[in-house]
Amino acid sequence: MLASSALAQTPAAHGTTQKNDPFVAQAEAAYVSHLAAEKAGDVALYKQTRAKGAIDETVANLRQRGASEKDLSAALKRGAPYSTSLDGYRFLKADGVGGAGRLFYRKDWKNGDMEMVDFLGYVTRWEDGRWKVDCVINATGTKLGMGSAGKLQERTVDEVTEHRCLALK
Hints:
The protein is an alpha+beta fold. It has 6 helices and 6 strands; from the N terminus they run αααααββββββα. The protein has helices spanning 2-9, 22-40, 43-49, 52-64, 72-79, 158-161, and strands at 90-97, 100-111, 114-127, 130-142, 144-146, 152-154. Helix 2 packs antiparallel against helix 3 (43-49) and helix 2 (22-40) crosses helix 5 (72-79).
């Protein structure tokens, strides 16, 4: 009975452009917590904020390098500087259904005279009574890029939305 009432209170993943949407707020909180867990090397918090598939992949990568799960804390700390904070990013949209959703962000900036753009997208899954972060993808480059027709055009968030890692499977 408790599990069904908890699920009833859970905001299902859905399409929205509203940053204050309960699903977006909870998914963002999970993302920020996952970054904090990496930075601190906090394995317990990491396991509370990352989807099981992402954790299994991380542990498998450690084993391939001859390390064990005991080395996870140090590995998280080493990888933390390469993770993408939401600082400076503008929320664009979320989509999804039920227990799986995707969130997308954009950051515009300058590198000298060049206009640059970063896109960030991640999948979040409902596991163990909370939203957990699964796959994270980002793309960085000049604001204008070569389009499919061979012409310069403004880059779009589609660069990350179409990535196979962000499929809602």
